[in-house]
Here is the input.
Amino acid sequence: MMRVRYSAIPVAIAPRGLTLGGACEMSLHADKIVPAAESYIGLVELGVGLIPGGGGTKEFVLRAADEVHDGEPEIIPLKDRFFTIATAKVSTSASEAFDLGILKKSRDFISINPDRRIADAKNAVLDLYHDGYTTPLQRTDIKVLGRSGLGALYAGINVMWRGNYATDHDVLVAKKLAYVMCGGDLSEPTEVSEQYLLDLERQAFLSLCGEKKTLERLQSVIKSGKPIRN
Here is the structure.
Protein backbone atom coordinates (compact mmCIF):
# COMPACT_ATOMS: atom_id res chain seq x y z
CA MET A 1 0.00 0.00 0.00
CA MET A 2 2.85 2.38 0.80
CA ARG A 3 4.36 1.60 -2.61
CA VAL A 4 1.06 2.79 -4.11
CA ARG A 5 1.20 5.98 -2.03
CA TYR A 6 4.88 6.71 -2.70
CA SER A 7 5.21 5.48 -6.26
CA ALA A 8 7.50 7.35 -8.65
CA ILE A 9 4.57 7.49 -11.07
CA PRO A 10 0.96 8.60 -10.38
CA VAL A 11 -1.50 5.85 -9.43
CA ALA A 12 -5.25 5.94 -10.09
CA ILE A 13 -7.73 3.34 -8.81
CA ALA A 14 -10.96 2.64 -10.70
CA PRO A 15 -13.19 0.52 -8.42
CA ARG A 16 -16.63 -0.83 -9.22
CA GLY A 17 -19.02 -2.88 -7.09
CA LEU A 18 -17.75 -4.25 -3.78
CA THR A 19 -14.54 -2.48 -2.74
CA LEU A 20 -14.05 -3.83 0.76
CA GLY A 21 -11.15 -4.34 3.16
CA GLY A 22 -7.87 -4.47 1.25
CA ALA A 23 -9.45 -3.06 -1.91
CA CYS A 24 -10.60 -0.04 0.10
CA GLU A 25 -7.14 0.32 1.63
CA MET A 26 -5.50 0.32 -1.79
CA SER A 27 -7.95 3.00 -2.91
CA LEU A 28 -7.14 5.12 0.16
CA HIS A 29 -3.46 5.18 -0.82
CA ALA A 30 -3.90 6.09 -4.49
CA ASP A 31 -3.26 9.54 -5.96
CA LYS A 32 -6.75 9.58 -7.42
CA ILE A 33 -9.86 7.37 -7.24
CA VAL A 34 -12.24 7.16 -10.19
CA PRO A 35 -15.08 4.91 -8.96
CA ALA A 36 -18.20 3.80 -10.77
CA ALA A 37 -21.38 5.26 -9.26
CA GLU A 38 -22.33 1.74 -8.12
CA SER A 39 -19.35 1.27 -5.79
CA TYR A 40 -19.72 0.01 -2.23
CA ILE A 41 -16.56 0.96 -0.37
CA GLY A 42 -15.57 0.36 3.25
CA LEU A 43 -13.25 -1.14 5.84
CA VAL A 44 -15.08 -4.23 7.09
CA GLU A 45 -12.37 -6.06 9.05
CA LEU A 46 -14.00 -5.49 12.46
CA GLY A 47 -16.78 -7.87 11.42
CA VAL A 48 -14.32 -10.79 11.45
CA GLY A 49 -12.55 -9.72 14.62
CA LEU A 50 -9.62 -7.88 13.02
CA ILE A 51 -8.61 -4.28 12.37
CA PRO A 52 -7.61 -2.93 8.94
CA GLY A 53 -4.01 -4.15 8.65
CA GLY A 54 -2.94 -2.86 5.24
CA GLY A 55 -2.59 0.80 6.13
CA GLY A 56 -6.31 1.56 6.42
CA THR A 57 -6.18 2.30 10.15
CA LYS A 58 -3.10 4.46 9.68
CA GLU A 59 -4.71 6.37 6.84
CA PHE A 60 -7.84 7.17 8.84
CA VAL A 61 -5.68 8.51 11.68
CA LEU A 62 -3.75 10.68 9.22
CA ARG A 63 -6.93 12.04 7.68
CA ALA A 64 -8.54 12.69 11.06
CA ALA A 65 -5.47 14.69 12.11
CA ASP A 66 -5.65 16.75 8.91
CA GLU A 67 -9.38 17.42 9.41
CA VAL A 68 -9.05 19.19 12.77
CA HIS A 69 -10.19 22.82 12.54
CA ASP A 70 -9.16 25.70 14.78
CA GLY A 71 -11.33 25.86 17.87
CA GLU A 72 -12.73 22.34 17.35
CA PRO A 73 -12.05 19.53 19.85
CA GLU A 74 -9.39 17.30 18.30
CA ILE A 75 -11.24 14.15 19.30
CA ILE A 76 -14.27 14.81 17.03
CA PRO A 77 -12.80 13.85 13.62
CA LEU A 78 -10.89 10.96 15.20
CA LYS A 79 -14.04 9.67 16.89
CA ASP A 80 -15.96 9.84 13.60
CA ARG A 81 -13.21 7.90 11.81
CA PHE A 82 -12.98 5.39 14.65
CA PHE A 83 -16.69 4.53 14.58
CA THR A 84 -16.67 4.27 10.78
CA ILE A 85 -14.16 1.42 11.14
CA ALA A 86 -15.60 0.02 14.39
CA THR A 87 -19.07 -0.39 12.87
CA ALA A 88 -17.67 -1.71 9.55
CA LYS A 89 -19.61 0.98 7.71
CA VAL A 90 -19.80 0.59 3.93
CA SER A 91 -20.93 3.31 1.53
CA THR A 92 -24.15 2.52 -0.33
CA SER A 93 -22.76 4.31 -3.39
CA ALA A 94 -19.66 6.12 -4.55
CA SER A 95 -21.39 9.38 -3.64
CA GLU A 96 -21.77 8.31 0.01
CA ALA A 97 -18.08 7.38 0.11
CA PHE A 98 -17.37 11.13 -0.02
CA ASP A 99 -19.44 11.60 3.14
CA LEU A 100 -17.51 8.80 4.89
CA GLY A 101 -14.22 10.48 4.06
CA ILE A 102 -13.02 7.62 1.87
CA LEU A 103 -13.18 9.71 -1.30
CA LYS A 104 -11.90 13.29 -1.35
CA LYS A 105 -14.03 15.95 -3.02
CA SER A 106 -11.01 17.98 -4.07
CA ARG A 107 -9.31 14.99 -5.68
CA ASP A 108 -11.58 12.11 -6.73
CA PHE A 109 -14.50 12.01 -9.18
CA ILE A 110 -17.21 9.50 -10.06
CA SER A 111 -17.20 8.00 -13.55
CA ILE A 112 -20.88 7.98 -14.47
CA ASN A 113 -20.50 5.80 -17.55
CA PRO A 114 -19.19 2.36 -16.44
CA ASP A 115 -17.76 1.74 -19.91
CA ARG A 116 -15.63 4.88 -19.61
CA ARG A 117 -14.30 4.25 -16.09
CA ILE A 118 -10.90 2.79 -17.05
CA ALA A 119 -10.39 5.43 -19.75
CA ASP A 120 -11.25 8.16 -17.26
CA ALA A 121 -8.70 6.74 -14.79
CA LYS A 122 -6.02 6.61 -17.50
CA ASN A 123 -6.73 10.24 -18.40
CA ALA A 124 -6.49 11.15 -14.71
CA VAL A 125 -3.02 9.60 -14.53
CA LEU A 126 -1.92 11.54 -17.61
CA ASP A 127 -3.29 14.77 -16.15
CA LEU A 128 -1.33 14.19 -12.92
CA TYR A 129 1.82 13.56 -14.95
CA HIS A 130 1.41 16.66 -17.12
CA ASP A 131 0.75 18.74 -14.01
CA GLY A 132 4.26 17.87 -12.81
CA TYR A 133 3.65 14.90 -10.51
CA THR A 134 6.41 14.22 -7.97
CA THR A 135 6.68 11.42 -5.42
CA PRO A 136 5.11 12.60 -2.12
CA LEU A 137 7.22 12.80 1.02
CA GLN A 138 6.38 10.35 3.80
CA ARG A 139 4.52 12.01 6.65
CA THR A 140 6.21 12.44 10.02
CA ASP A 141 3.83 15.09 11.40
CA ILE A 142 0.67 13.09 12.18
CA LYS A 143 -0.75 14.26 15.49
CA VAL A 144 -2.06 11.49 17.74
CA LEU A 145 -3.84 12.08 21.05
CA GLY A 146 -2.45 9.34 23.27
CA ARG A 147 -4.19 8.71 26.60
CA SER A 148 -6.62 11.63 26.29
CA GLY A 149 -8.01 10.18 23.06
CA LEU A 150 -8.00 6.63 24.43
CA GLY A 151 -10.18 7.66 27.35
CA ALA A 152 -12.80 9.18 25.06
CA LEU A 153 -12.85 6.21 22.66
CA TYR A 154 -12.92 3.67 25.49
CA ALA A 155 -15.94 5.51 26.93
CA GLY A 156 -17.74 5.19 23.60
CA ILE A 157 -16.87 1.49 23.39
CA ASN A 158 -18.25 0.96 26.90
CA VAL A 159 -21.55 2.60 25.91
CA MET A 160 -21.85 0.27 22.90
CA TRP A 161 -21.15 -2.75 25.15
CA ARG A 162 -23.63 -1.74 27.85
CA GLY A 163 -26.29 -1.15 25.20
CA ASN A 164 -25.72 -4.71 23.91
CA TYR A 165 -24.54 -3.41 20.56
CA ALA A 166 -21.14 -5.05 21.05
CA THR A 167 -20.02 -8.43 22.38
CA ASP A 168 -17.05 -8.91 24.71
CA HIS A 169 -14.89 -9.80 21.72
CA ASP A 170 -16.10 -6.73 19.82
CA VAL A 171 -14.90 -4.69 22.80
CA LEU A 172 -11.46 -6.34 22.70
CA VAL A 173 -11.08 -5.64 18.99
CA ALA A 174 -12.39 -2.06 19.27
CA LYS A 175 -9.95 -1.30 22.09
CA LYS A 176 -7.06 -2.57 19.95
CA LEU A 177 -8.29 -0.28 17.17
CA ALA A 178 -8.54 2.68 19.56
CA TYR A 179 -5.02 2.00 20.84
CA VAL A 180 -3.61 2.19 17.32
CA MET A 181 -5.65 5.24 16.32
CA CYS A 182 -4.51 7.17 19.40
CA GLY A 183 -0.87 6.32 18.78
CA GLY A 184 -0.57 3.97 21.75
CA ASP A 185 -0.25 4.73 25.44
CA LEU A 186 1.33 8.19 25.07
CA SER A 187 1.13 10.58 28.00
CA GLU A 188 0.29 13.58 25.78
CA PRO A 189 -0.57 14.44 22.16
CA THR A 190 2.44 13.77 19.97
CA GLU A 191 3.43 13.99 16.32
CA VAL A 192 4.38 10.59 14.86
CA SER A 193 5.30 9.12 11.48
CA GLU A 194 3.29 6.91 9.17
CA GLN A 195 5.71 4.06 9.84
CA TYR A 196 5.12 4.37 13.58
CA LEU A 197 1.37 3.93 13.04
CA LEU A 198 1.89 1.10 10.56
CA ASP A 199 3.99 -0.76 13.14
CA LEU A 200 1.24 -0.37 15.77
CA GLU A 201 -1.37 -1.46 13.23
CA ARG A 202 0.56 -4.58 12.25
CA GLN A 203 1.20 -5.54 15.86
CA ALA A 204 -2.50 -5.26 16.73
CA PHE A 205 -3.55 -7.16 13.60
CA LEU A 206 -1.20 -10.06 14.28
CA SER A 207 -2.20 -10.26 17.94
CA LEU A 208 -5.88 -10.54 16.92
CA CYS A 209 -5.04 -13.30 14.46
CA GLY A 210 -4.18 -15.43 17.48
CA GLU A 211 -7.52 -14.87 19.23
CA LYS A 212 -9.81 -17.91 19.30
CA LYS A 213 -12.99 -15.92 18.65
CA THR A 214 -11.41 -14.12 15.70
CA LEU A 215 -10.42 -17.47 14.21
CA GLU A 216 -14.00 -18.70 14.73
CA ARG A 217 -15.33 -15.67 12.84
CA LEU A 218 -12.87 -16.14 10.00
CA GLN A 219 -13.76 -19.82 9.73
CA SER A 220 -17.46 -18.94 9.65
CA VAL A 221 -16.91 -16.46 6.79
CA ILE A 222 -14.94 -19.03 4.82
CA LYS A 223 -17.58 -21.74 5.27
CA SER A 224 -20.84 -19.78 5.17
CA GLY A 225 -19.96 -16.32 3.90
CA LYS A 226 -21.14 -14.72 7.16
CA PRO A 227 -19.29 -14.02 10.43
CA ILE A 228 -20.76 -15.39 13.65
CA ARG A 229 -21.62 -13.10 16.56
CA ASN A 230 -19.42 -14.35 19.37
Q: What stands out?
A: The longest helix spans residues 147-162. Residues 2-224 form a domain with the 2-enoyl-CoA Hydratase; Chain A, domain 1 fold (CATH 3.90.226.10).
